[in-house]
Every structure is written in structure tokens, then in C-alpha cells.
Amino acid sequence: MNESPYSIVLRSPELLAIFGALIVIEFVWCSLYRNKSYGAGEAVASIGIAAGRAFAKILMGLVLGGLFLSVYQLRLLDIDMSDWKAWLALFLGADYLYYWMHRLKNDIRCIWADHAVHHSGNYMNFFINYRLGWTGLIVGTWLVYLPLVWIGFPPATVVSVFALSLVWQFWVHTDMIGKLGPLEWVLNTPSHHRVHHACNPVYLDRNHAGILIIWDRMFGTFQEELESEPCVYGLVRPLRSLNPFVIAFHEWGNLIRDVRRAATWKDRLRAAFGYPGDKRALRAARATTTTTVKAPPTPGAARSPASTSPTLDRRAA
Description:
This protein is mainly α. 55% of the residues lie in helices and 0% in strands.
């Protein structure tokens, strides 16, 4: 097994056509209806990042394919995938593990160094999907899926379910789609994922879901998108560079700098494995600020420019 979830998606002409159509619709909507910048420069940079990741995924597929097959030889059960209940169990298990993997990506500095690439876009549009880190093999978040293989789910089925999650998450990276009524209670929607990509204190490190938002509701990381709190996208310290190499490695550079500056081994370990320092101040601000959660606006309603969060100075965080 040397195929990754990304290669499954990319070799589907139907999916690529749908993604392309969505991008065109979003661009027209943003330019004509919203009359605001689409962030074309960032979009081009995202394509460059995707090209670099394609090379990284070749190595990752070779290494992980052999590892997953080896673990599968030690499986506890022989699971019959012709039974729909097996697929349901795999879907729920994979989505649950994705939640924790995504949460770790945002909370542990050396893993955030890879994931920060995805959060570096200052515009929320479909091109954010192509901003993915190049060092996934190093940070090891793929280890989260090994228990499913060890239990007895065939590696190819685990990869397929992860690919399904990627397809779902493509369309939630947009500012174009409003709230979706009752679906907001169960599914990860564009509204929920806008919250995840926002750096406002009230939104920071919320809504880690892949497909089902129920995990965030269960484990206390859910946050509604507030009419009174427009999302501010990007990193706490905004990254303006359009150079794919700078975008891919800037947070690794920050991490290495902080480790070298640390006075003790305890501080070095905290700099490498602790909570990302540039987000700590905003998280503390959220903890000391009471935000009134208002009733959700009707779909398509205009967002108020008013803010309930502390003053947001991302440069000084």
C-alpha cells in the first residue's frame, strides 16, 4: 500500500472538476458580490506549497505504506468490510481520531510548526486546502491512525475513509457559505471551520472536527461563529510572505530560534513541545474575558463589525 488519501483525491477527475468549479464560483462571488480582494497572490503561493508537498508525500507514502502493512500483520481481528456496520465503525473511529490528531496539531509546538502552514493564509477561501505542511512525516501525526489498522481494519480502507474526510473538508474552507440550520449541530460546516481558522481570542483553537462537530461539543472545544465577532484569519503573528519555502518553514525557524535562546533544558523542551508561545497571550486573554454568546444569525445575514473580544494586536502577541 503506497497510496495516500491525497493521491486518491487527486487522481479523481470528477473531484478535481468539482473543486475547480467551486473555486471559480467563489472567485466570482468574492469579486462581484462581496466586492473584496480574493487574495490572488496567496492563492498562487498556495499552489506552490501544494507542489512542494507533492514531493514530500511520495516519501511519506513509501514509508507509511510499509509501516501500515506491517502493523496490519499484527492485527487483533479479521474485520469483514462487506458488512456496513464495519464501515460505520471505521468512519466513526477515524473521525474521532482525526479530532484528536487535529487538536494536537494546534496545541503542541513541534507539530504546530507543520500545521501552521495551513493556518498561514490571511484570506479564507478554497485555496487554503492546498496550504499543507511538508514535514508531516517528521511530526508523526499519522501515528494516530495506526490503532485502526492494528485492530483489524485493512490499511486501504483506513486511507479511503481519510480521503473522504479530505473531500468533505474542501468545501468548508470558504467565507461564501452561511450557516446551514440543523446541520450545524452535527456536521463540521463552513461556519464552524471559519471559527477554527480565525485568530480572534474567542475563536482560537476551537472546532477541530473533521466531518462530525459532535467531538468538539463533547470535549469542550466547540465555539459558535458569532454575529458580533467577525473572523480574523491567519496566524497570531501574520505571515505576509508569498514565498512557498518561507511559508513552509517559517514556524520551524521560530521554534529553532526559541530553543537556542532558552536558558535551561526545561525551557528548551517547553519551546519544542509545549503550547505555541505566540498563541499563549491570546488564549490567556480569552480565559479572563467573558464573551456573551448571542443567538446564531440567520443564514446569509450580514456580520456586525462590533467585537466582544479584547483588542486584537496580532503583531504583539
